[in-house]
Design goal:
7 strands; homodimer; 12% strand; globular; Rossmann fold; 4-stranded parallel β-sheet; alpha/beta; 2 domains; 3-stranded parallel β-sheet; 10 helices
Chain lengths: 243, 243
């Protein structure tokens, strides 16, 4: 199979979780100006959910997901993807190993989200972060924050993580969206009470139950930010700008 | 890439249209008993919407979609799929050429839908069919109906096809769901008035706007029927029954 760079085929390394993969694909469609099937962006997806739990691995309580992520990503290489994106925040903890193993360009979800935070909330904003234990404990968001942005991070407390955030994410993964919505909504409310000016949804399960209409403050959806960047990449491949 | 038969990897030849592909993936999730990511079914998807319009080709007014469908399907072969399914009714007009070109087992969407019609509406039922001009004019559903089932088909009139069904499907493909819902709802009402006892949604765009709650009579969703069969295939691969 020849690689699809010319066509701008986006490869989605998905399945983490599978509903978040579908949400990402839907957000790519919504980000594409199209009046017919043929105007939509070409996408190949590897949604292989048999990847070890990323948070458990980070905590040292479970096997590494890396080998399964590489195997899943190779399916995209074989299928002719020209770019790889990964709609799972926590999986980005293995970013440095994954890119060289696949040999394709990738877009980083956290960088896409941070660019939208700065655009929408403004430099110096106080941003509440909802994410998995591993994403928060690894410093994934603060460590990639552009130095000049002055963004200030506000995190859930350890108790809120254990009682609301992690059980809420697990409920979404199990398909129990009402429970997930209630638990994650409590965590969002707590961040708002402590002075967050914007809410960053930094786990791809969270925007499945919290959105701009239901949240107590402006929302930045990392999934949507990555989807918009992926569509822009593909459209640029299709019709390169004249120099 | 080795083929994924052991893992039960379902290959989805999608993009016809892309929103219907997402709907199909979502219906696979809903058909899977799973409490965590890892219990979901592994899926690879080729959603390449740059496939010539199937209805135009059938009418002799456009290029054949076959070469693009084969190229898209080969991405699934390369990605290690063990089975191919195609969430587009009209694309099944090229079924006989596609299977040998890919060399993988496939499940036929129309056969999946017909089995559910017989189960739910009963032998001898009068079934209203909503589908594209090409699906209807080719006799795709009546020609595959099991001889002993006694199903009776009721079709939209030519005027209803031109005024309601085809513009309704085009509106869904363009992302204008309210217009699609209104037009396709009128076509469903007409079939109900003429005595249909059940409604078969025989185009994957139609269940995006018409469902069991909104339809004037019991609904059989061909997309959902195929999704349930694909999940059953994958689960059987994972844990084969003892002989």
């Amino acid at each position: 199979m020849q690689h699809g760079e010319g066509l701008g085929v986006v490869g989605v390394l998905g399945g983490m979780g599978p509903l978040a993969t579908i949400d990402f694909m839907h957000k790519m469609l919504k980000a594409t100006p199209a009046a017919s099937d043929q105007e939509h962006v070409p996408v190949v997806v590897s949604s292989i959910p048999q990847v070890a739990d990323r948070t458990a691995a980070f905590r040292g309580e479970g096997a590494s997901p890396l080998a399964a992520m590489v195997a899943s990503g190779r399916r995209l290489v074989e299928a002719g993807a020209g770019l790889v994106v990964m709609p799972c925040n926590t999986a980005h903890l293995w970013w440095d190993e994954l890119g060289p193993a696949l040999g394709l360009p990738m877009l980083h979800l956290v960088d896409a989200a941070l660019a939208e935070v700065v655009d929408r909330a403004g430099a110096g904003a106080r941003v509440g972060l909802l994410a998995t234990d591993a994403t928060i404990a690894s410093g994934l968001y603060p460590n990639r924050t552009p130095p000049g942005s002055g963004l200030q991070w506000l995190l859930p407390t350890a108790g809120e993580m254990l009682q609301h955030v992690m059980p809420g994410i697990a409920a979404v993964k199990a398909g129990d969206l009402p429970t997930g919505r209630a638990l994650l909504g409590q965590a969002a409310d707590a961040l708002a009470r402590r002075g967050a000016q914007a809410l960053l949804l930094g786990c791809t399960e969270i925007p499945l139950v919290i959105d701009a209409d239901s949240a107590p403050l402006p929302v930045i959806d990392a999934t949507g930010a990555l989807a918009r960047r992926a569509v822009a990449w593909s459209l640029a491949q299709r019709a390169p700008l004249a120099a």
